[in-house]
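Annotated sample (chain length 483).
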Amino acid sequence: MDLNLDYIVSSITGKRREEYLEKLYLTPLRSFENIRFRQDVFRDLQREEILKATREFSWEMSRVKRYLSGIGRLYRYQAERWLLDSVPIYCDCVTRFCKALRTSRPESEGLASFSRYLEQYVSSDSFQNLRKQAERIITDLDGVRFKMVISPGKIRVSRCQNEPDLGQEIRELFSRFSSPKDQQISRKYTRSGGMSHVEAAVLGMVAKLFPEPFDEMISFFEKNRNYIDEGIEDFHRGIQFYLSYIDFTDKFRNSGLSFCIPFIHENRCETVLRESFDLALAHNLLKTGGKVVTNDLSLNSGESIAVVTGPNHGGKTTFAKSVGQVHYLASLGLPVPGKSASISVPDNIFTHFEREENIDNLRGKLEDDLFRIHQIMEKATSRSLIIINEMLSSTTLKDSLMLGKKILERIREKGTLCFYVTFIDELAEIEGVVSLVGSVSPEDPEVRTFRIERRPADGLAYAMALARKYSLTHDDIIRRVGS
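Output written by the structure step:
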């Protein structure tokens, strides 16, 4: 919640709001091998030809599944024909994807192994027979010709002899008024479940006139009700994780923001981010036309605690959130916001943000702050990440400084990576702590740049700049009093 991860996940999944997909985004990986497996797949999908082929495969498979999902609501013979018509779409999309992967030669184990799987499946007798049987039955059914005689309260169906096909003549007549775009739309929407009971009854009479092709269609339906290969079904579901994230990040890339596949250290060494940003904030700013500010971060090996100070509303909390988001997204094997990143993946991410006083837990605000940070320290390890935001604001400066030092000392003893956002400059002066400062405009200290810089804390310098701007320095005041 503190890092706005729920908002980010819901924005990524969007219309795909399927439970299994959200679960994937909310389950960090604990294995470096699994993280790198996903990273390699994303590297392959950075190649345009592979991404295009994968998207086309996904769209066609979704189309097949839409056919099959509606079968239970259809009339007799209509349901069987829908399944029959879905088979060529399935076979064509699988065959095309197999050829595309063979040509592009993906390097990731995920796509390369699936390419090999497809090669075997497409060449199998079961797949070839499925395609051939469907095509033959469709050809036979398309050759069925009948005529209807409609009289009050009665419909009579019989075989055609040599009567002209009036429907075809009408289609040819109106085709001259249609554009290629109209024809594409017509091909796209070739099926509708809107058959009436009268049409269903007519279809039943036609089936009695032509029993052979209809019986074959029913037999095909019964034998192939679940014809989609299980491995292909699993791949189609799994690839949505990658495609949904790529679709989401494309919005940012189109606005000039970068995403990168981070370099992952198995043991914590350095933490380096270039042009990173808060993903949740950026998502909102892009919708409103606002400007997204990026930031860099560099912590060397052995540097584990960074204290972030600076003026209020200067981007300190946003920066801390962005660091947490990068580490979380990296733990999912995803590309992260920024041009480059070199990090270690934490075993857990702990956050301590200020909360409103809760009368139900019978703790005061200070006691609750200390209770929650104690719980974090009990669980944190040397591989964890802790993000603390404006803690201890409910007590005196002296007590806040004393407690803050003790908390940082405990964190240092554990060797945990920590980012501590605070109004207390003195915490940034502790030996071994890296000082990060939210900067302001040199021309006007009231203007925030939202840039976070690695330099000594300058709260007093900032206050002096404001005093000079408004003529409130010691000399200014003495001069006024003296006059």
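Annotation: The domain at 255-482 is CATH 3.40.50.300 (Rossmann fold).
Annotation: The longest helix spans residues 78-104.
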